[in-house]
Structure formats: C-alpha cells, structure tokens
Amino acid sequence: MRAIVMHRTGGPETLGVEDVPRPTAGAGQVVVRVLAIAASYAETRVRAGVLPFPLSLPVVPGAEVAGEVVETGDGADPGLLGRLVVGVTGGVGAYAEYAAMPAAMACPVPDGVRPEEAVAAAAPAALAHALLHRARLRPGRAGGEGTPPPPGVEPLPQEARRDSVPAESGGVEPAPEEARMNRVRPAASGGEPVPGDARRETVLVEAGGGSVGGYLVLHAKEFGAGTVVATAGAEPKRRRAAELGADLVLDHRDPGWPEALPPVDVVFDSIGGATAARVLESVTPGTGRILSYGLLSGEPAAVTGADLMRTGVTLAGCGGPGWAAPVFGTHYPAALARLGEGRTRAFVEDALPLEQAAEAHRRLESRTPLGRLLLIP
C-alpha cells in the first residue's frame, strides 16, 4: 500500500510517499481501508521533534482516520466488518491507504454523514464536549445553585441553548460580528459591559478560532455559559470566533491581552506558559476554574500551588490516560451523534491527496487554516 513514511524528525520535507506492507489486525484491532485522514497541528510538532512523543523511526505518522473496516482481529466485534467507522490509531499509522486501530476506538459513522465530515469533527468536537462537561458551568454566577449534567448527558433545559442555535435554523440572531470583534473591557475598569447573559458564568476560550476552540465557542452557551470571551491571532481567525458566537474576541498576539480581560469564571487554557499566570488575575477568586488542555506556547501553564492558594482558583490538567478514556469512550460517540443529528458542524478547510502531506503540514504550521486539512488516499 502507499503510505507517508518519516525516517527522521525535521521539516515537512521529511514526509515522503513509499510502498509499505499493509497492516494486519492484531488482537482487539480492526483494519480500515482509509477514505479520509485529518492532519493536525500537533502532528507537525511531533514531526519536527519538538513535542515529546515516543516514535520508532521509520514511522507512518497520523492518528485520525475514517474508513471501511476490512478486517477484524481476535476479540474485536465482527459486526464492524464492512462498516464505515471513524477513530484514532493511537498516534501513528494513519497517513496510509490502510490503517490499524483499536476496535474500541472505531466508532460507526452515523447515516448521512460523509467520512470527510466525520474525521474532521469527531476528535476536536469530542474534546470540546469533554471540556465543557468538566467545566461544570453553573446556571447562575459563580457560587450559584444548579447541578451540571453528568458526562454524556445532554445539557437541559432549552433555555440554556437558545443563544447557540445558528440564526439560519430559526434561532436568535447573534450580535453583529463588528460589535464583538476587538471589544475590550479591562478587568478593573468598570467600562462598557461585554455582551452576554450576566446571570450566567463567563468563559474564556483561548485560540477560539482553532479546531477545539471553535467547538468550545460554538457550544459554550448551550452548556450554560452566559458570556463567551475568545482569543485568536490572525484577523480571519478572530472573525471566525465572532461568527461562532464569541461575545468578545481579543488578539492574543497583543502582549497585553491578558490585562484586557473582563472577569471570567472558567478558562479553557490551550496556550499555557507564562500567559496562564497573567490570566489567573482575571479569574473569579474562590470559585474560578482553569482547564489546561494545550501547550501552544510550548510550555505548561506557569501557575504555582502558591498562586492557587492565594486565589482559591482550581486548576485542572486535562490530559493523560485517565482523561482520554472518557473523551474517547463517552464524548467521541456523543460528538458523532450530534453531527448526525445536525447539532454540530464539521469544519473542513481543504482536502488534499495523500501525496501532499508535506503541503498540509506547511499550511498547518502557517496557522492560517480555518478548518481541518484532510488527506485523501
């Protein structure tokens, strides 16, 4: 079969097409004939050797695939044979015409959903879904009454969702994006209020124009947020965050953006580094929560135990096996069900031939795509 093979870490030029043996299904595995692959920014960091990830070179990179199951191993559900599924391989092996993955990670694609849509949406939407449940957004301001839905259970009542329904489907028309782009209320200024429902909690979504951040912005109010503040870099990504429903969008390329934050109750931290300590100063003392799930800065959130004791803020690390189990066991199929029901969307920037994996990585590293970049074998 044809596959992208990487013999060393380095630039996009390390990704070349080769003929390699087709994988076979081991115990508990399935093999799929790959129909679509989602490339990610994290994979560019692994390829460059700057993101710690165990690699045994040469290797076929990639983790997210959609395809038809053509082989099942011992212990795998034989009923998956011939089904269209989407799933993750465990980190490598996806950039190919055939890929093996754990059967437990292979989710049937809902009827009416194309494989390109499924692989574009499943992982980032599932992670956003999991983060929103973990945030336990309260119906009122910090300290208010209310019990959040348990993992996997959809948020109710409808009132909590009214602001997130797209206008074209009959929902409330969002405020014009011009009114949300680059509006700033310094945390201590008492200036112009940020749009949104002040009775509910305010959330900050870092990188709100990205893949996971976009889903957080899109669904935060459905899960109980009153006001959504987002950051993004380039102007098209800031515009995208506003279009998805952010009430306030800040340019995180501006070194002073953390000081421009209004008070926030929940932070979805994908930047990490020293910025996290500055953001902490705008988080509600005593009840605020920071959910750290990304390292766009290349460093973990620089928040110390002393910082947390001083502020009473909770810092949750969202990663590792204990985090991945519910993400892929509960929220991944829930995200796919939402996609099949038309309650979330797939964001696809472009679909390139498998041979253009290097070009996909170059575009991902430019940080310009507004949707997923797919590879088609």
Detail the topology: elements first, then pairings:
Elements: E1 2-6, E2 15-19, E3 29-39, H1 41-48, E4 64-72, E5 84-88, E6 98-102, E7 107-108, H2 115-135, E8 202-205, H3 211-219, E9 227-232, H4 235-244, E10 248-251, E11 266-269, H5 275-280, E12 289-292, H6 305-311, E13 314-317, H7 321-340, E14 348-353, H8 357-365, E15 372-376
Parallel strand pairs: 8-9, 8-11, 9-10, 11-12, 12-13, 14-15
Antiparallel strand pairs: 1-2, 3-4, 3-6, 3-15, 4-5, 5-7
Please summarize what this structure is.
The chain has 377 residues and is α/β, with parallel strands linked by helices. The protein contains 8 helices and 15 strands. Strands 3, 4, 5, 6, 7, 14 and 15 form a 7-stranded mixed beta sheet that branches.
Let me know the average pLDDT: 87
Largest sheet: 7 strands, mixed
What is the number of beta strands? 15
**DSSP strand content:** 15-25%
Low-confidence stretches: 141-192
Task: Give the ordered list of helices and strands.
Answer: EEEHEEEEHEHEHEEHEHEHEHE
Instruction: Count every helix, treating DSSP H or I runs of 4 or more residues as helices.
Output: 8
What level of helicity do the residues show?
A: 10-25%
- The radius of gyration over CA amounts to 21 Å
Head-to-tail CA distance between termini: 10 Å
Secondary-structure-based class equals alpha/beta
Shape: globular
